[in-house]
Amino acid sequence: MNQRAHITMPDDDVTAFLEGSRKLQLATINPDGTPHLVTMFYGLDEGRIAFWTYAKAQKTRNLARDPRVSCLIEAGDDYAELRGVLLYGKAEQVTEHDRVMAIGMLVARRMTPDVPDDLLRPYVEQTGRKRVAYVVERTKVVSWDHRRLA
What we know:
Helix content is 33%, strand content 39%. By secondary structure, the chain is α+β, with helices and mostly antiparallel strands. Strands 2-1-5-6-7-4-3 form a seven-stranded antiparallel β-sheet, sandwiched between helices. A hairpin with a 7-residue loop joins strand 5 and strand 6. The longest helix has 15 residues, at 97-111.
């Protein structure tokens, strides 16, 4: 077996890794074709990456023009500990207000673990007035877990 195949995470491990992580690196495509890369908190909506952002943000303008994204979630400091999942996909904008708020709550829970929903909800409702939400439909998943090399 080649090394790449050996370090690829099984689907259950990918799911657990996404569920246990809080932030991702989101890449969209600028008008000139260069990548626009930002760190985002995210939630999971039926297993799909979900995030929200301000309606006037650069990433929002990029996604309106080209919905293709790359989402990188990674962990580990030393080579032998490196783990990650790279999702390629298309970001679909969520327009229904209740769903935008639900995604906002998913994200807020990741940003502030152990804070009760009744304390998060006012923040989500306030900031949600200026935000849009997205759900990423995966087209490709690449994963690695260097701990499997030991």
